[in-house]
Amino acid sequence: MDNRPIGLLDSGIGGLTVLKKVIAKLPNESTVFIGDQAHMPYGDRNREEVVELTRNSVKFLLSKNVKVIIFACNTATAAAMDIIQKEIEPQIIGVIQSGSLAAARVSKSKKVAVIGTKVTIASHAYKNEIQFRDSEIAVTELATPHLAPLVEKQASFEENLKEVKNSLLPLKNHKFDTMVLGCTHYPIIRDEIRAAVGEAVTLVDPADQVAQYTENVLKRDKLQATGPAKHEYYTTGNAANFTVVAEKWLNDQTVCAEHVETGD
């Protein structure tokens, strides 16, 4: 047994969607979450910048003696996971492989749409992973760079829906029965995305599979904790604002985020 915490990183608050599923799935596990809000959005940066920013967050998590690290950020997973895994001992668990597996399983028409940041979409990571699992699946990729900043802004449902509809316009003439929410911010505006694409489209949130895979890794490597669980929250941005969002999204009034500097 191993009571060291699980580390999670994201460019902002979107990774809370993954954290929520991990806490629910693994109630005995402690966690340390770092949101790099001072440098978001990652999706508009080049790969070298994303790698360096992600490396800074990883160093912070390692200082907290974490036993595994979840890249709760699609952009970081696409741009930096393979590079940084070679630099550290703890296993890194990414969201893209998990989301791709789920999409390949649920699509009946073998037509899948993926929305994400510019970096994630440009990497073709989802397309490659999905088609690796089923080469017959047609994957339509769309960069939706305005959505993650929209989530961080905490706008109204009406404002969110307007931007979601505008962002998804290029998909209007494409047929698909499954859409991968290829950015961990997007499940926070799941209702708006659902309203835009309709009830017939299955929305895939990679966080579900990430939580399951994390459990499998902990069992395999005999790293499971006995509890009690403790959860720590850090942000490079405004700690008070982060706390408000985290309390609401996690339905946990005990959240108390701290501001940290992870380097530039």
Automatic annotation (TrEMBL):
Pfam families: Asp_Glu_race (PF01177). It comes from the Bacteria. The active site is at C73 (proton donor/acceptor), C183 (proton donor/acceptor). NCBIfam families: glut_race (TIGR00067). It catalyses: L-glutamate = D-glutamate. Keywords: Cell shape, Cell wall biogenesis/degradation, Isomerase, Peptidoglycan synthesis. GO terms for biological process: cell wall organization; peptidoglycan biosynthetic process; regulation of cell shape. Substrate binds at D10, S11, Y42, G43, N74, T75, T184, H185. It is an enzyme of class 5 (isomerase). One of its GO terms (molecular function) is glutamate racemase activity. InterPro entries: Asp/Glu/hydantoin_racemase, Asp/Glu_race, Asp/Glu_racemase_AS_2, Glu_race. Provides the (R)-glutamate required for cell wall biosynthesis. The lineage of its organism: Bacteria, Bacillati, Bacillota, Bacilli, Lactobacillales. Belongs to the aspartate/glutamate racemases family. This is Glutamate racemase. Pathway: Cell wall biogenesis; peptidoglycan biosynthesis. The gene is murI. PROSITE patterns: ASP_GLU_RACEMASE_2. Its EC number is 5.1.1.3.
